[in-house]
Design the sequence.
């Protein structure tokens, strides 16, 4: 059985009593106004004369929650942006290292010595200079005198068509060794100066002041085989 809510009058609120009781033409208990409500009424009803709207506390709570949401969203987007930037920087550093290795391997692999027009090999503990073949913008090979050393804290190649090129930053020291002969116990020498000969290989050790592992100083070692012209 469905219970039916019967309207009743609640004194003190609502329309004129005469409108609600047109048949009786008199207000119950002598009240001038009454409100038709459901049984039980509404205990959360706004008191008479109170304007509709939000209270100051409700507005402050809403503003506080909105500020927290904006702050959290800003931190999330900032973290995502920083992560993407660090990833791009790491990728650029890896690409630069790979390009530097390819360039050095190509320069040493095409080393030219002992032929007419070529200059001698000048190997020192802190740098090396030699003649090599480099492809120009038109695809032709041209002989150039190349120098490798540290300039302003960066490993720099001099003698290229575009000017000096930095291969690695934060280099505190450069050590170069030269392989004298093949074999497991073959000696490495610190200098090599000859107008007609070149070493079998060149070993470059870079001491860097800033490392990925967090150490104060790290050493990168590059081993390059001299090409057939040497």
Sequence:
């Amino acid at each position: 059985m469905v219970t039916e809510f019967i309207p009743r009058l609640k004194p003190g609120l609502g329309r004129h009593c005469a409108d609600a009781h047109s048949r009786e033409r008199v207000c119950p208990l002598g009240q001038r106004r009454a409100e038709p409500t459901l049984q039980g009424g509404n205990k959360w009803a706004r008191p008479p004369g109170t304007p509709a709207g939000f209270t100051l506390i409700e507005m402050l709570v809403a503003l506080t929650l909105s500020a927290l949401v904006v702050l959290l969203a800003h931190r999330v987007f900032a973290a995502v942006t920083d992560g993407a930037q660090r990833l791009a920087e790491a990728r650029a550093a890896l690409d630069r290292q790979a390009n530097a290795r390819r360039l050095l391997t190509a320069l040493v692999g095409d080393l030219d010595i002992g032929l007419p027009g070529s200059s001698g090999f000048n190997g020192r503990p802190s740098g090396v200079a030699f003649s090599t073949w480099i492809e120009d913008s038109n695809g032709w090979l041209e002989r150039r005198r190349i120098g490798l050393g540290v300039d302003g804290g960066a490993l720099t190649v001099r003698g290229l068509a575009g000017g000096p090129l930095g291969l690695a930053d934060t280099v505190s020291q450069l050590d170069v060794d030269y392989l004298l002969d093949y074999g497991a116990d073959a000696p490495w020498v610190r200098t090599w100066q000859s107008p007609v000969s070149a070493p079998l290989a060149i070993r470059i050790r870079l001491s860097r002041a800033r490392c990925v592992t967090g150490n104060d100083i790290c050493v990168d070692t590059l081993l390059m085989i001299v090409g057939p012209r040497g």
